[in-house]
Amino acid sequence: MSEPPILYEARDGVATVTLNRPEVLNAFTPEMLDLLHETIHRAAEEGQRAILLTGAGRGFSAGQDLASIKDQYAEGGPDFVSLLREHFHPVLRALRMVELPVIAAVNGVAAGAGMSVALACDVRIASANARFATAFTKIGLVPDAGMAHTLPRLVAYGRAGWMLMQGEPVDAATALSIGLVSRVVEGDALAAEAWALAQQMAAGPTRAYVLTRQLLDSAVSTSFDHLLDIEAEVQAAAGATEDHRAAVAAFLAKQPPTFRGR
Ligand code: T3D
């Protein structure tokens, strides 16, 4: 029996989700995307506290599986609208809306929509051999799976335009220097370092992390004045959590806080 294209393991509050088609650098098929979407929701429904997303083998993901759609070119071409709306977009929306912090452990090449998926996560830690290739224009496509939104916000407009139009891979050291990833570690240390980061975030104020994501998303598309209104509302939600109250009490008692994600 062949292995499932998505592996799931939950331990100590961390749901590890592994893209698992290593023979094609974890390129996405619709079935794999649907399972990934289900799995993101599963982690939240089970009450896990963080998601750690990574790839099996030497790649993170090479984006859309081009071999699986090649026959469609003889019949008028792939139905891009359906492929995106029905299979890619639910995954991207789930990553941005799930009530858990999402950590991408980028273990190798992330290309096309594989890179888009990595960029939609809250934080990225990469191995020294990771590469980021926008790839879309290399095959005559425009960026999709949200990359036209995420990339310029991470690396600024000018560099995003260069990366998207040139499509050349960016290595891990460059990715770190331009803010595409937050940390780079030697390849064989990635699993342990990413796990430690995921555990640290899972034990943190996870509700505040998710609200911070929402606030950041609002902040990049609104005026300063409107942001001040939004932040008051979002802070009210964070301020109503048990985690906030417990952390203030712990601070005043000169104790370390214990966060429960609510
Ligand atoms: O319908 C739509 O298309 C809309 C949605 C679009 C979203 C997108 O993601 S568009 C972008 C699609 N992705 C790409 O164009 C990337 C294609 N891959 C590459 O350019 C290179 O493979 C990489 C730069 C990612 C890695 O290069 P390298 O030299 O490390 O590995 P490789 O030898 O090229 O690949 C290893 C194997 O994976 C190879 O198979 P083989 O020869 O060992 O049997 C290769 O064919 C396979 N593979 C890599 N990428 C894909 C793939 N198979 C299917 N689809 C892929 N995207």
Characterize this entry briefly.
46% of the residues lie in helices and 16% in strands. The protein is of the alpha/beta class and 262 residues long.
Describe the overall structure.
There is one protein chain. The chain has 262 residues and is an alpha/beta fold. The protein has 2 domains: 6-202, 2-enoyl-CoA Hydratase, Chain A, domain 1; 206-252, Lyase 2-enoyl-coa Hydratase, Chain  A, domain 2 (Orthogonal Bundle). 46% of the residues lie in helices and 16% in strands. It contains 10 helices and 10 strands. The strands form 2 sheets. The protein has a 6-stranded mixed β-sheet, sandwiched between helices. The protein has a 4-stranded mixed β-sheet with strand order 4-6-8-9. β1 (6-11) and β2 form a beta hairpin. α3 (113-120) packs across α4 and α8 packs antiparallel against α9 (224-239). The radius of gyration is 19 Å and the shape is globular. The mean pLDDT is 96. It binds ligand T3D. The site of ligand T3D has 24 residues, from α2 and β6.
Spell out the key features of this protein.
single chain; 262 residues; alpha/beta; 2-enoyl-CoA Hydratase, Chain A, domain 1; Lyase 2-enoyl-coa Hydratase, Chain  A, domain 2; 10 helices; 10 strands; 46% helix; globular; binds ligand T3D
